[in-house]
Amino acid sequence: MTILLLHGPNLDRLGKRQPEIYGTTTLADIQNRVADYARERGQEVDARQSNHEGQLVEWVHEAADNGWAVIVNAGALTHTSVALRDALAEIADGAGYVEVHLSNVYGREEFRHHSYLAAAARGVIAGLGVHGYFAAVDYFSHADPVL
Ligand code: DQA
């Protein structure tokens, strides 16, 4: 299976941006490590990042057309974007998507407690840093992820 690993705004700044919250690992490191982890489990990862909502929506459409699963850390768009939610609803009806956050958004400002993406996600992982992505890959690596 192909998994689209999608990152939203400002996540290209990982490693430099608020390391006390997000750690010192760069986005490239995360993408490489998650791709390696997935490959060892027979999965292909296509990793992309954009600061632009419309671009993310178009990539989700591409995933829907190709039947790909999605692991998404949408950054701040998690808390604002109905457009991304509507796009991901198509993935929910197909291979499914998992929402990941590096930080524990529930221990932070109140505006981060609401996610437009969470309801239709197979699951949400927050606060485990890079481990959250590995857990999401594990989920998609099982033949019947509901079991
Ligand atoms: C984040 C949490 C969001 O609230 C924030 O806007 C981000 C990163 C995380 O990975 O912890 O950009 O998605």
What can you see in these coordinates?
With 147 residues, the protein is α/β, with parallel strands linked by helices. The chain has one domain: Dehydroquinase, class II (Rossmann fold, 3-Layer(aba) Sandwich), CATH 3.40.50.9100. The protein has five helices and five strands. It has a five-stranded parallel beta sheet, sandwiched between helices. Strand 3, helix 4 (82-92) and strand 4 (97-101) form a beta-alpha-beta unit. The longest helix has 14 residues, at 53-66. The chain is globular, with a radius of gyration of 14 Å. The model has no long low-confidence stretch (mean pLDDT 96). The chain binds 1,3,4-trihydroxy-5-OXO-cyclohexanecarboxylic acid. Residues 10, 73, 75-76, 78, 101-103, 105, 112 line the site of 1,3,4-trihydroxy-5-OXO-cyclohexanecarboxylic acid. 1,3,4-trihydroxy-5-OXO-cyclohexanecarboxylic acid (DQA) binds at residues 10, 73, 75-76, 78, 101-103, 105, 112.
Give a nutshell description of this structure.
The protein is of the alpha/beta class. It has helices at about 20, 25-40, 55-65, 80-90, 130-140, and strands at about 1-5, 45-50, 70-75, 95-100, 125.
The span between the termini is 18 Å
- Read across the widest sheet, the strand sequence of neighbours is 2-1-3-4-5
What are the segments in which pLDDT stays under 50 over at least 5 consecutive residues? Answer: none
How many discrete structural domains? 1
DSSP strand count? 5
**What molecules are bound to this protein?**
1,3,4-trihydroxy-5-OXO-cyclohexanecarboxylic acid
The Rg value, from CA coordinates, equals: 14 Å
Number of helices: 5
CATH homologous superfamily heading: Dehydroquinase, class II
Beta strand % = 15-25%
